[in-house]
Amino acid sequence: MSNTCGCQNSGNADFAELAPVLEKYAKVPGSLITILQQTQDIYGYLSMDAINYIAERTGIMPAKIYGVATFYAQFRLQPVGKYLIMLCKGTACHVNGSDMIEEAVCEHLGIKDGETTEDGLFTLNNVACLGCCSLAPVMMVKTVDGEETFGNLTKSSVKKILDDYKAQNA
Q: How many whole angstroms separate alpha carbon 4 and alpha carbon 9?
């Protein structure tokens, strides 16, 4: 019987990096969240191919895995941009204008919290706290090479920071 639903691993993806995780946790009851966390750490997000591959290796139904992945806010089902903007929304940042900074980022990039720009450069994620309260309002920009923290933000400074990142890709 042919698979017309598209729910099997397409075979196009290479999950070699995930193999050690599944060797360790596939048969351990209650380890699905750990598997999903490590999968996201490796690939940046949880693709449907990855979910189906995990299902094949663990015997857990893809619908259950998808349900867990969509229930917890920590999991992403879409790839993130080259620059992941984590905007602090903690109390100190909120009091010092993080909503204004979010508005500036959204206007400047044309995205909202959780979205990625069409060019794939930026993803905006509001986070509960970055632990840099003395720098409020603050954001962190993560890349494959590391992360950089920016504090005492203003609407104009955040736009300049974003333009500097854009210029690196021109």
A: 12
